[in-house]
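Aim 2 progress update. The chain analyzed this quarter is reproduced below.
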Amino acid sequence: MKNKNFYEGKVIWITGASSGIGEELARQLSGYGARLILSSRRQEELERVKASLKTDPENVCILPLDLAQPALLPDKAKEAENAFGRIDILINNGGVSQRAFALETPVEIDRKIMEINYFSGLILAKAVLPGMISRKYGHIVGISSVTGKFGFPLRSAYAASKHAMAGFYESVGTEYYSQGIRTTVVYPGRIRTNISLGAIGPDGKPYNKMDPGQEQGTPVDRCVREIINGIRNDKREVFPGGKEVLLIHIKRFFPRLAFRLARKVQRT
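Predicted C-alpha cells:
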C-alpha cells in the first residue's frame, strides 16, 4: 500500500464536482493536500464547494464546463493543464442517469447520454494523456456504475454508456502502462446521492424523483474513501456500495440468476 502522503501536491481534475461523489471527492482529497480543479456546469455550486473546503483557496481552481458540448472540451483541457502546469489525475465523474424504457427513449436521448457519459471522458482523457506520457506519470479514473457490468430496467442508454467506459479505460491502461499511465474504473452501487433527481426521463426532462434504493444507499463519504484508496493502490477496478454489488459476482458464476434479479429492479 502506498503511503498516506500519496496525494499531497498532486494536481487532480474532477468533473461533476458540484454535488454527490464529485463534491465528496473534492472534500476528502483537499484534506490530503491535493491541488484541485473542479468542473461542472454550475459555477455557483462549484464556488460553494470551494468555499467549504478546508484548504488554501489557491489550491483550488474552478473550471466550469458542459460535458454535452464536446467541441469545447479540448480547450477546457488546456485551461485545466494551465491552472497548475499539469494534470496528475483525471477523475471523469460527471454524467447523467436515465429512467425510461428503451422504446420510450428517442435515439436523440440515447446519443445525448452517450455523449455526456462516454465521449466527454474520452475527449478529456485524450487531451491530457500526452502531457501525462511526457512526464511518465498519470492516472485516469472513470466513475462508472454497477450498470457498467450488467443492464437494469429503465437504464438501457445509461448502461450502454457505462459499458463503453470500461472498454475504453481498460484499453488505455494496457496501451500506456509501460509509459507510467494507470487507469481505474469505479463501479458504484446505490450511493446516497441525488443522481436519480437529474436522471433523464423519456421526454428528455429530469426524472426529479428520489429512488427509494438510492435514498437508502451507501453513504457517499464511505464510497469516496474506497475510490481514493483504490486510486492510491493502482486498482484497476473499485466496487463501492452495498449488497447490490454482489450481483456482479452472481452474474459471473450464476448468469441466469443475475438476470432474474435484475429484472425485478424497476424503480426500486
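The chain has a mean pLDDT of 91. The first strand starts at residue 11 and ends at 15. These observations will guide the mutagenesis experiments scheduled for the next reporting period.
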